[in-house]
Structures are given as C-alpha cells and as structure tokens.
Amino acid sequence: MSSWILLAHAETSGFGLNLDLFETNLINLAIIIGLLVYAGRGFLGNLLSNRRAAIEAEIREVEEKLASSAQALSQAQTQLKEAEAEAARLLVEAKARAAAVRQEILDKAAADVERLKATAAQDVSTEQQRVLDELRRYAVAQALSRVETQLSQQLDEAAQQRLIDRSLATL
Description:
GO terms for molecular function: proton-transporting ATP synthase activity, rotational mechanism. The protein is mainly alpha-helical. Helix content is 87%, strand content 5%. It contains two helices and two strands. Strand 1 and strand 2 form a beta hairpin.
C-alpha cells in the first residue's frame, strides 16, 4: 500500500504525502543500498581487492623481515658463543702465563736470596780474615814491644850487639 515519497492512499481521494518516517526511510534505504551495490560492485570489489593485495604484500614483507631477523639472531648467537669461547681461552692463557711469570719471579727471588747469602757470607769471611790479620799484627806488635822492653832491661850492651849480629846473619 505504500510507495516511495509520494503515495496515493486508497482510502483518500487523491495524492498526498506519506508522513510515516519509518516506512519511507526503510524503503529509501533499501533502494539506496541496492543502487550502491549495483553501481559500486566493481569499484568496491577493486578497492577490496587492492586492499587485500596490499595486506598480503605487507604480510610477505613482515615474514621476510622475520626470517632475516631470525637469521641475524642466529648469527649473533653464534658470534656470541665464539666470543665466549675466545674469552675463556684467553682467560686460561692469562692464568697460565700469570702462573709462569709468578714462578719465574719466585725463582729469580730465590736466586737473588742465594746470591745475597753467598755475598754476605763472603763479606763476613773477608771481614773476619781482615779482623784476624789486624789482631795478629796487633798481637805481634804488642809482643815485640814487650820483648823490646824486657830485652832492653835484661840485656846489656854486648849481648844486644850479639843478638843483632845473629839476627842479621839469619836474614
């Protein structure tokens, strides 16, 4: 019984406006949607197809980036393992070198101590010999001094002359 905007009512005797908004809006909306679907099918299809292609391209690009990132991560992990192995090797070498240097220093210090002991012993021996020689000279000088004193007191002039002559003869 109803039609589009201008509708004729069977009960009334003429044409008039249908003021029932609900009925007229639904009909108008159905007509507009039908026209849009009919006219915009190609356009909307192309638009959706292009959008789908763009999304698929972005997905492929993201997947490629993911694959390259995974490969880069794998390479970085490999390099990290190699670096850790190298660091461990260097640490072992450094410890071994430190132990060798330590032993070398200890050996050198022991040799220096022995050399110093030998030098000190030689110095002590030399000093001891010098002191003994000096004591001997002092003892001889003291003995000679006493002998001279005693001889001069006990010997007369003639006995002294004979002693001097005998001493000169033995030389």
